[in-house]
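Morning. Coffee machine broken again, so started the prediction first thing and wrote up yesterday's gels while waiting. Chain of 339 residues, entered below exactly as on the submission form.
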Amino acid sequence: MRTSLRSIAVSAAAILLCLTPSTAHAEDAAPGRCTAVSIPVPLGEMAGSLCTPTARATDTVMVLIAGSNYNATYWDFPYAPETYSFRRAMNAAGIATLVVDRLGNGASTRPPSTQVTATVSARALHDIVRSLRAGLAGAPPFGKVITGGHSLSSGIDVLEATTYQDVDGVLLTGYSHALNVSEVLGVISTYHQAAEDPQFAGRGYDAGYLATRPGTRAADFFAPETADPEVLAVDEATKEVFSPTEYPDGLTSTLPPMSNFINVPVLVVNGSRDRLSCGPAYAVCADAETLRATEAPFFGPAARLRTFVLPGSGHSVNLARNTAEYRAAVVDWVRSIGQ
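Came back before lunch.
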């Protein structure tokens, strides 16, 4: 089984979109009013939290799904939320959010690992978008729905946007068409079966669900020399499982010509020290202009492509000390959509 698992991991590396962590839900806090939701989708239900701004009504909502190794906590971090909660920052800016756990982790349904794919998740995301436009959990229908992804879930967002063409904007973080395969292989080597991990043992995970080995996440997803030690500790404590069957079709989002068919505005964000998404020697992420020049051939005119590079950040841009800079860029971009 271990030999088989290693083979799956290595083959997944060549087609890995970008790795992402997963996490647990933070307590709801101002400036958003939050309601727990459970949305029927293929293979079960996806659990999440719909938060609307307390200061004013809004017609705009962001659907936020974390990538592999993380759950909803990535977007609504429980430690120092005034600094690290992306959800809270969007609500403060007058933007509603729906933070959702992917199938297989957090509070969402856990199917057999082999059934969990990026394509299934894209279909589930489509169902969520339709629910928001119709009115979800008592909220008025939203006229502007924007998807936000990180790493693997950025690939899911690309799949959803190109397949269903039902959203108004796409935020892609921890994502590029220039994966550093050798670094991806290095991160893959830190995985093991979730059932072998002290945090998940005895919880009924089948052999296909994986998790990062204890103590490896700082090097995998952060620039450890600049990260807050408390963030690293909470990130380790709230890590999540995933299935490598999510990677193969997730990779298609990084191959031409898929992303060229996105017909709504796109913002691509990476940390300047992202070992996975920035190519050899982090060259692709030298600055926003360099990232845009690299990514522009993969997007059409309708994408009105914007890029942002967060200085000093690793793969998990939400959890960098200076993450407020990236959130400000996102708010500015969201407000530009439709103008």
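The CA atoms of residues 105 and 214 lie 18 Å apart. Going to sketch it on the whiteboard this afternoon.
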